[in-house]
Amino acid sequence: MYKKLSLKAEHFGFEKGWIVKVLKLLPQYPDLFKRSDNQILLGIGPNKINGLYIWTKGMELIEGSGNSVKLTLIGQIIKEYDEYLNEYGSWLVLIHNLSVYPPHNPAGFYWFFNEFNKMEFSREELKTALIESTLFPHLKNSTKEEGLRGTLAALKNPIISEELRLFEETGKGRFRKGYPPKQVFHPLIFAYCIADWASRNGKKDVVQIEEVIYTKGLPGKVFNLPEKYVQEKLDEIDIKYSKRILDVERFAGLNRITLRVKNSITLLKLYYEETVNKRSLEEIFNIL
């Protein structure tokens, strides 16, 4: 069903400061990940640099390989508006990009947020589920265990675990899934996630509300959101932006949204214009 997916991401997860350095240095050094002085430039060792390359590629911040790596359009936009990654919207985009459907590498986030359905669990239960997953029949159990270590390290990042509340360690070797507080999940980032999924899955113009709640790669599933949370967030977008971002339809047997802005990159820019540059709604509408 899928191409051969990898869990390879080293054992270190990622840190905010490492990603910020990639955004800062890569335009000047397209050979950043291969340079002999990259440990000095990035301030981390070779294994962490290798893991950082894998993670930032999975976040869709960078593209290319070898001595020719550059920021993607998403990477360029985030660097322009939020070069120090202080906005929660930036982090929600990165988590979404790591968890998209169809999945890509590294596939640990995709598996955890879309395929693993337990709400409270032990590390052993997590390991057993990963070993039994049909996504990785080509990987040895020892490779899956290594992949789990890297995925857990990333999930324990304080922004993901403490601030966005997506992953909580409740006791020694025990964990729980959570979801972001409503105030940090900006409506335009919510719309970005839907539009990006629609583009990757047949360039859809219409998405069923049930899909937004339950379908792999969409915000309800990825961010573990209750149905009421999703419905309220859709209504917020519909009303706040006067149906010019998306149109929620719940009549005559319909229960769907129609995307008025289909380009996720446009929605990402609008988010930063509103939150960072403090544009008014009227100015946002003029941009549209």
Which characteristics define this entry?
288 residues; mainly alpha; Arc Repressor Mutant, subunit A; three-stranded antiparallel β-sheet; 15 helices; 8 strands; 11% strand
Number of strands: 8
| Number of domain units | 3
Provide the CATH topology of the largest domain: Arc Repressor Mutant, subunit A
Largest sheet: 3 strands, antiparallel
Mean of residue pLDDT?
96
The termini sit apart by 38 Å
> Looking across the biggest beta sheet, what order are the strands in?
3-5-4
Strand content: 5-15%
The shape, in one word, is: globular
Radius of gyration: 19 Å
Task: Give a written overview of the molecule.
The chain has 288 residues and is mainly alpha-helical. The protein has 3 domains: 81 residues, Arc Repressor Mutant, subunit A (Orthogonal Bundle); 71 residues, Arc Repressor Mutant, subunit A; 106 residues, Arc Repressor Mutant, subunit A (Orthogonal Bundle). The longest helix has 15 residues. The protein is globular and about 55 Å long. The model has no long low-confidence stretch (mean pLDDT 96).
